[in-house]
Amino acid sequence: MKDKLDLFSNLLLEWNRVHNLSGAKNRQDIEHNITDSLQVLDFIQPFKSCLDIGSGAGFPAIPLSLACPHSHFILLEPNAKKMAFLHHLKVNLNLDNVLLKRLRLQELPALKVDLITSRALMNAKDLLDLSAPFLEKGGHFLFYKGSNLSQEISCLPKECFTYGKRVYFYRKGTN
């Protein structure tokens, strides 16, 4: 997995120079984002399928798809240049467990997944409301949020995990 994460880092640095895909400007920034993406494996339950909303430059979905090769990932990204980069990653990293969709969540046909992830996309309450129909019964939401999470949504302490400045919101769906 390390070789593929290194290749991911190199490709992101290369594409970022021209296309400005993410705020990560050097290898250290990218490694921090990879660690951030994978930190959740310390507390989330195993899952078979994941919908990543607003995949951007591939965080958290690409590192997670490499760490969980037996899980199926659907990455949603409406931006053409970011989607082109995700296609490039899928081919170069041999990500057979990843399906790419150039759509907004509101345009996605009905489907059900065990895990819904998103990183810095929108307010947690709005994201919960929009994504809930796609969550399998017993599935979980996993949002990568910052310290303002408590202003966006009330959550129980058992639903929030904090590492440094990152707050991970991990809630079981109610459907």
First-to-last CA distance:
35 Å
Secondary structure class reads: alpha/beta
Mean pLDDT: 91
Number of helices: 6
Characterization of the model:
The mean pLDDT is 91. This protein has a seven-stranded mixed β-sheet with strand order 3-2-1-4-5-7-6, with helices on both faces. It is an alpha/beta fold. The longest helix is centred in the first third of the chain and has 18 residues, at 2-19. It has helices at residues 2-19, 27-38, 61-67, 80-92, 124-131, 149-152, and strands spanning 49-53, 72-76, 98-101, 113-119, 135-145, 160-163, 166-172. The protein contains six helices and seven strands. The N and C termini lie far apart (35 Å). Helix 1 (2-19) crosses helix 2 and helix 1 packs antiparallel against helix 4.
Name the features.
alpha/beta; 6 helices; seven-stranded mixed sheet; single chain; globular
Provide a brief overview of the structure.
The protein is α/β, with parallel strands linked by helices. It contains six helices and seven strands.
Secondary structure layout plus pairing:
Layout: H1 2-19, H2 27-38, E1 49-53, H3 61-67, E2 72-76, H4 80-92, E3 98-101, E4 113-119, H5 124-131, E5 135-145, H6 149-152, E6 160-163, E7 166-172
Parallel strand pairs: 1-2, 1-4, 2-3, 4-5
Antiparallel strand pairs: 5-7, 6-7
Helix pairs in contact: 1-2, 1-4
